[in-house]
Amino acid sequence: MSDSRPRVLVVEDDASMQDFLTTFLEQEGYEVRWAGHGGIARELLQTEAFDVVITDVVMPEVDGVAVLDEVRAEHPDTAVIVMTGHSSVRQAVDLIRRGADDYFKKPFDIDEMLHVIRRSLEHRRVVRATRAAPTRPGVVPVAPDAFPRIIGRSKAMEPVFDLILKVADTNSTVLIQGPSGTGKELVAAAIQEKSSRRSGPFIPVHCGAIPETLLESELFGHEKGSFTGAIARKEGVFKLADAGTLFLDEVSEMSVPLQVKLLRVLETGTFRRVGGVEDIHADVRVVAATNRELRELVGKNLFRQDLFYRLNVFPIVLPPLRERAGDIPLLVSHFLHKLGRSGRPNCTISDEALKWLCAYEWPGNVRELENVIERAVILCGGGEVQAGHLPGELRPARQEAPLAGDTSGLPYRAAKAIFEEQYIRALLARHEGSVAAAASAAGMSRAHFYELLKKHTIDLARYTSG
Q1: Rg of the chain over CA atoms, in angstroms?
Q2: Which helix (H) or strand (E) segment is 420 a member of?
């Protein structure tokens, strides 16, 4: 690309928007070219190199979606930012899936646009530097569709994908840690699918859901007559998972005596059925998971230290959903399609409802989000899921939150939206619903203040004392 100023191509049929963006970006130090529609943009892209393409969606002759597709196919190192006057959740998800770096609904915040341009340029600079550097053994680039069952493209998930690829084709034991509902079983299954064991069995066992008296038999099997009710020999999951992968979920719930027997299997590859005397060998790769801090349990003598070290050969830590809020629109779209395929009503979701979902903390993580979407689809009955179809706790958690708070785990736009709404609500509460007083205190016009009220669907009546 250019050795001096970054080069930006603005594709926009509205002359005033062309002039505005060109003037602003040139003042910020960018070299700017513009095209009145996608056809002209294609011609320029064939003869000139650009660092960033900013394109409208609806244009004569060739639209912005076609421009996006062409840039992604022919110029993968070029960032694409899309502008649209008629944004919807479905369109936004489609644009991101097609490879857009970001999208903006008109009218947009020009400072946000500038932030996204800078972020995209820095990301591509790092990618180019990484590509030019000598390849290290074992480093494998992660394709966007490498893990089709794991929905997510956020930065917080990139280390997880990278670790899966690094460990998959080894026999090392893996310990997956993370809060409940973050998708630990999906990660375990992905490790199996990317390994040489992919043709073998994948058997999940939820240790906390099986009574302690039955868990040993479930894992190792039992001989006929070894205890009351053992009317026949039973093979345990260690034997059934031979040449495959055994996923031990919530391994922290296992009793200390059973932990000793698990340690023996991991160290020797052999075990005995309950009531048996014969050592049985099984070629099993163990992937364990827990939502608890095993080091703390070791300190309390509730988990064996030697077993912890044996399980923790290759740890993978999953981020909570609040740290990957950028994945929420993709997850929502996935769950809506999943429910539609299962016979539930086909639904879309409103922008306001999606804003609530993106702002919520999600203590139950992805599992909680899926349950909320299923409930909303039932209440909706078809058509568009509105904010009123969502549980009431989603809004108050953000409505009454103090202005302070760590939003560093959110994307810039989501964090800014949260602050903006909290700021406006705090002003209204302080001035008892007086828009004139609140706008004056904020240093903005009443017209702008009313626009923010509409943007965040704030009910002015609840702040008036009358």
Answers
A1: 27
A2: helix 412-430
Tens digit of each residue's pLDDT (9 = 90 or more) over 325-347: 888 888 998 899 888 888 888 88
Q: Which residues have C-beta within 8 Å of that of residue 418, sequence separation ≥ 6?
A: 359, 398, 407, 410
pTM for this entry: 0.57
Q: Where are the alpha helices (DSSP H) in 99-252?
A: 110-132, 158-168, 184-193, 212-220, 237-240
Q: pLDDT tens digits for 163-210?
A: 999 999 888 899 999 999 999 999 999 999 999 999 999 999 999 888
Please tell me the CATH code under which domain 155-317 is placed: 3.40.50.300
Q: Is the dihedral of CA 460, 463, 464, 466 positive or negative?
A: positive
- The tokens 């009955």 sit on which residue? 381
Q: Which residues contact 433 (CB under 8 A, 6 or more apart)?
A: 460, 461, 462, 463, 464, 465
225 backbone φψ class: left, alpha, beta (φ>0; ψ -120 to 50): left
Tell which CATH classification among 3.10.100.10, 1.10.8.60, 1.10.101.10, 1.20.1630.10 matches the domain 323-393: 1.10.8.60
Residue 236: CB atoms within 10 Å: 21
